[in-house]
Amino acid sequence: MSEAKGPLAGVTVIELAHIMAGPVCGLMLADMGANVIKVEKMNGDDSRRFLPPDIGGESAAFMMMNRNKRGIALDLKHEEGKAVLRRLLKTADVVIENYRQGTMERLGLGYDSLRQENPGLIYCEISGFGRSGPYAQRGGFDLIAQGMSGLMAITGEGPGRPPVKVGAPVTDITAGILGAMGVAAAYASRLKTGEGQRVDTSLFEAGIVHTYWQSAIAFATGVSPGPMGSAHPLNAPYQAFETADGWLTVGAANQTNWERMLTVIGAPELNADPRFCDNAKRMQNLPALVEALTAIFRGKTTHDWLVALEAAGVPAGPVLSVGEMHADPHSQAREMVVEVDHATLGPVKSLGLPVKFSETPGGVTQAAPTLGQHTRAVLAEYGYGLPEIDALIEAGAAKG
Where exactly does CATH 3.40.50.10540 map onto the chain? Predict the structure, then answer.
């Protein structure tokens, strides 16, 4: 095991999580230096079977979510496999799980049981709807959470159109980030008190936090906002506009940037138009504003507009494909596209750590594990001798 770097170096995390929300939490902690040991079932995390696409037979989806982690495989229905996990949890700082409610308790590994042996344990639960409330027993998926959290009601082209989910599994990803934030906060508390605690978040709540602006509007007016395409519910112009060869996003919402933009596009008369003279009027007359600006923006290429708008200090950007984003020089400069060595595939690409630290830099240093890749090494670290490890593997309690 290489020497860990990052602000969470020295923190041991046991990840009992699968597919996405829990693994996002684990990868955030791992990228910040934590020693994350991913415990998989004997046939692996379900995302190993998210095929295609694959790279040399390995699931691209699994490799994205599980870089920087070491992986072991245990049969938790086997008493010896369960005993191995309990030994790992006895000294762990953090455990992450995203099972259905009651699963860990049925295994004898619920928080109340584990804290008896490890009172400093931070027990992070990420589920569809949280561990309390009338929906606590329900399973949860990103699509369901986006619908129930209000997100699908505000996403899409406009009123009267079919509901649209955010393209990314945003509640899964956000729940993982919220879980990592909760773990970090609980760890800070433990440094002061010595006591661990439960950290409970959900896909449902992860969706709700993306409705801050729309919830503010609904609280103030009693009316629930609907979808507005790429437009903003409170400011204009703040959206994507069609150009001669593609699309351009423009953030000219405050009055200064509005006036700067009008100078760039050669339409100062729009500032004298009573329909557009301030932000409140522009929002009231948004369809007319979009029509007027679209007619202008279609007259030049995206590149030409970007050069002119940037020179004037008006926030603007192109609409990039995912591949174009990967190749963008700023993505490269911010180390958001990285390359790491996989045990069987050699160099593979992944996304980088989105948080930079001046004194304790984290980062992506290793690829996702093959199934059971680190079982033998991890068990040896926890005091198992070679004959014991061989016996566990032969008995089917572990794979390695």
Answer: 12-209+330-399
